[in-house]
Amino acid sequence: MAEKLFSSEDKERIVAAVKQAELNTSGEIRVHIENHCPEELMDRAAYLFEKLKMHKTELRNGVLFYLAVKDHQFAILGDAGINAVVEDDFWECIKEKMTEYFKQSDFAGGLECGILRAGEKLKSHFPYQSDDVNELPDEISFGK
């Protein structure tokens, strides 16, 4: 099971990164990890995005970090509100940085780096508001 690939410290680091990133932005960040991607990568990410109800955020500013560890695949999927305002290579730049960590089998470090970068970059378009409500859980969701 994918959950066993991460130590409790790794999981805590990833959740802490989500919480830290969400202090910069009203955007909502989720992480889903599984061993294998059972379909085309972006189709799977889109399916999970909907299953995790990420499209239900008020500003349509959810971000999913999806990782299929044993298949060596990952995707970052942003909702329509984000994709309408960020530059075309926004997600690709974050993925490149994460890949540097993944090549060293540092999956927690790669996720942490990507999550924090996303939060930092999103704050100009979706700044944190004092009345911000955490619309989605910060915990990691795991598949098979």
What does this structure look like?
The protein has helices at 8-24, 41-51, 80-83, 90-102, 107-122, and strands spanning 28-34, 62-68, 73-78, 141-142. With 144 residues, it is of the alpha/beta class. The chain has one domain (2-129): Roll (Diaminopimelate Epimerase, Chain A, domain 1), CATH 3.10.310.50. The chain has a four-stranded mixed sheet, with helices on both faces. Helix 2 (41-51) links the parallel strand 1 (28-34) and strand 2. The chain is globular and about 40 Å long. The termini are close together.
The CATH level-2 architecture is identified as: Roll
How much strand content do the residues show?
15-25%
Mean pLDDT: 91
Q: What characterizes the major β-sheet?
A: 4 strands, mixed
**Topology as a string of helices (H) and strands (E):** HEHEEHHHE
Structural class: alpha/beta
Task: Assign a percent range to the helix content.
Answer: 40-55%
Quickly count the domains. Answer: 1
Determine the number of helices (DSSP H or I, runs of at least 4 residues): 5
Spans of at least 5 consecutive residues with low confidence: none
From the spread of the alpha carbons, the general shape counts as globular
Strand order of the largest sheet: 3-2-1-4
Report how far apart the termini are: 5 Å
Number of strands: 4
Could you say what the CATH topology is called? Diaminopimelate Epimerase, Chain A, domain 1
Per CATH, the class reads Alpha Beta
**Spatial extent as radius of gyration:** 14 Å
InterPro entries: TPM_dom (IPR007621)
Domain TPM: 3-119
Protein name: TLP18.3/Psb32/MOLO-1 phosphatase superfamily protein
Pfam families: TPM_phosphatase
